[in-house]
């Protein structure tokens, strides 16, 4: 499985200036490549590389960065096509979509740039990297990371790393390819996990991960956002961006903690994890408006993704089950009735009288579906 490890760079002033000039040059080149792609309609990796390689070298890039700029541009067009296809810019012919289709893809001057082993080398013992810049090779840039991250980078780093400027700090996002530890047989069944808004995650064991703090942050930010949006000044826009970043980081931290606890519990008890299949949420594709739904859908998808990758590393099976009626069905007798839910928090079965916390009942249904699905698919395996 592939993981991205973020390593913070600590360049001195000269090195930082060289990195900045390099990003600017690469993105100037990317914008040039993008205009060429737009004008000619050539957006495939090899086609675009052939078209602009010489031109990019003429703009001061060396061979590898020129290739990566061409590929990055081709990748941006592929992402754009996918976004158009799934309707993220609205239906065909609408104004927003026409605007996007009618101009070349643009890159920010500080947009991330990939570096491969020929233009970036790691001195792990010394804790430094040496990187190609437009001012020549810049060696001895110190980096910082946790011991766990260093272990990943040392053992499993493969291929490219992205140079990223974020909030005034420099990072390398290193791709690490970790061997699959193999999957443990879920001999004690499945831990069901219900994802929600009031409670971020509730397990079939009855553990409730409340989202109170996260929701407070969201509500506070929503009020603040309205005010700032009404203002519309440049500084208000900057504050809005800052706010969005902070909220996303807070949500990600929460999702990391919750997913870790869920995976640890499943591993400890030799169970798999069953999640609802939220369907069709693609990793790199922007989600549709409205904002409120986007926020939550995005956060669900992230928690699901965190659970999935932590589970793979821990050898825990994850299954995705059909989400229909998980909250309205009785986990004791199977009776489905919307009157089983007298209010948001309570489940009381109209047929057998079984009563339970509503989210715990849903999680138990999810666990049961996970176990049933696993049994069926493995019976088929055995027969084959
Ligand atoms: Zn019942």
Automatic annotation (TrEMBL):
One of its GO terms (molecular function) is endonuclease activity. Residues 300-366 form the Cas12f1-like TNB domain. Keywords: DNA recombination, DNA-binding, Endonuclease, Hydrolase, Nuclease, Transposition. InterPro entries: Cas12f1-like_TNB (IPR010095), RNA-guided_DNA_endo/Transpos (IPR051399), Transposase (IPR001959). Pfam families: Cas12f1-like_TNB (PF07282), OrfB_IS605 (PF01385). Residues 179-269 form the Probable transposase IS891/IS1136/IS1341 domain. This is RNA-guided endonuclease InsQ/TnpB family protein.
């Amino acid at each position: 499985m592939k993981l991205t490890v973020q390593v913070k760079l600590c360049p001195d002033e000269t090195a930082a200036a060289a990195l900045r000039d390099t990003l600017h040059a690469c993105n100037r080149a990317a914008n040039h490549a993008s205009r060429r792609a737009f004008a000619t309609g050539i957006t495939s990796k090899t086609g675009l590389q052939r078209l602009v390689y010489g031109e990019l070298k003429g703009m001061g890039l060396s061979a590898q960065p020129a290739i990566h700029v061409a590929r990055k541009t081709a990748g941006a067009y592929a992402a754009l096509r996918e976004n158009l296809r799934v309707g993220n810019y609205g239906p065909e012919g609408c104004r927003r979509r026409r605007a996007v289709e009618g101009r070349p893809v643009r890159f920010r001057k500080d947009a991330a740039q990939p570096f491969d082993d020929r233009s970036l080398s790691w001195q792990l013992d010394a804790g430094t990297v040496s990187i190609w810049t437009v001012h020549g090779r810049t060696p001895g840039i110190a980096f910082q990371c946790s011991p766990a991250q260093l272990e990943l980078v040392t053992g499993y780093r493969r291929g490219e790393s992205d140079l990223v400027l974020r909030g005034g700090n420099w990072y390398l996002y290193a791709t690490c390819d970790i061997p699959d530890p193999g999957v443990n047989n879920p001999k004690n069944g499945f831990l069901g996990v219900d994802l929600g808004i009031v409670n971020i995650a509730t397990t079939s064991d009855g553990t409730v991960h409340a989202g109170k703090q996260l929701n407070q942050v969201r509500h506070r930010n929503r009020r603040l956002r309205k005010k700032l949006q009404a203002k519309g000044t440049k500084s208000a826009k900057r504050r809005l961006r800052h706010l969005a970043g902070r909220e996303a980081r807070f949500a990600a931290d929460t999702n990391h903690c919750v997913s870790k606890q869920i995976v640890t519990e499943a591993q400890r008890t030799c169970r798999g994890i069953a999640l609802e299949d939220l369907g069709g949420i693609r990793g790199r594709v922007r989600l549709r408006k409205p904002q409120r739904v986007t926020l939550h859908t995005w956060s669900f998808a992230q928690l699901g993704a965190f659970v999935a990758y932590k589970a793979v590393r821990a050898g825990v099976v994850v299954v995705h089950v059909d989400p229909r009626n998980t909250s309205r069905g009785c986990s004791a007798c199977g009776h489905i009735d919307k009157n089983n839910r007298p209010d948001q928090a309570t489940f009381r079965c109209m047929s057998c009288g079984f009563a339970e916390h509503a989210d715990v009942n849903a999680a138990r249904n999810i666990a049961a579906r996970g176990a049933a699905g696993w049994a069926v698919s493995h019976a088929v395996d055995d027969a084959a």
